[in-house]
Predict the 3D structure of the following.
Amino acid sequence: MRSTTATLLALFVLLTGCAGGDEPAATDTGAGAGAEETTAPAETTADDTATGDATPTGEATPTDGAPTGDGTETAAGDCTLDEPVKVGVVFSLTGGAAVFGATQANGVQLAVDQLNAQGGVTYEIVQEDDGSDPAQGITAFEKLLNSDQVSAIIGPTLSNTAFSTDPIAQEAGVPVLAVSNTAPGVTEMGEFVFRNSLAESQVIPQTIAAAKEAFGLERVAVLYGSDDAFTEGGYTVFSEVLESEGIEVTTTQTFAKGDTDFAAQLTEAGNTEPDALVVSALAEEG
């Protein structure tokens, strides 16, 4: 939750224009995405998760006497707003991904409680449940943008949902921050789409390399969900990395979202006598 809190600090400060100066502060959190700001976005590199102008602790607000972009000095805490900044939150509070969504919602609430306690600028959460379903996520985003008129949206939980919802916010020019969308291409949807979570392309290579060194992997069987953006993206990266590491794939087996019986796939995989199983799946199939 500390990571979520730090990112929220940077995002909220930028949204309210409290970073000071004529030029907006930037937080680079994804591929093809610009800086988190209220004016023109800047270019970033693909699938990066650098912190940009935010400090490692997420404290993007200038300190006492810190210079601003226009050469003046701004004391911390000087920025105030009469009304709370309204922020939409869309997580999977029900359905297969609820195991993730519940903790994400707690993290956001922790961050907002801390920020509101500081005074000056306060924040109002408008929370929606996407039910781990893209169609419900679309409804949630449309409500937040059209009815609630939020300044930004945090979420959704799943990459598969994000590919349906984020273009809506992009079209409306409202920033979206993904805290768990790791599939390739998420931030390529537009300059208002950001993420602070590491992409699969950044995590899987180190994971396979470490497993190969620790267990002497030479042959593996691969299982993946073939009907979800996250699991398909993970499989693609796994395949590339296994080939580059010189690890033989003895068989590749697929399954569908919501499947509970994997006897056929595991039997087929076991018959090839692999050193390990490499699986790209959602929590509900775990």
About this structure: The first helix runs from residue 2 to 15. Residues 19-76 have pLDDT under 50 and may be disordered. Strands lie at 66-67, 73-74, 85-91, 123-129, 152-154, 176-178, 193-195, 219-225, 248-255, 276-280.
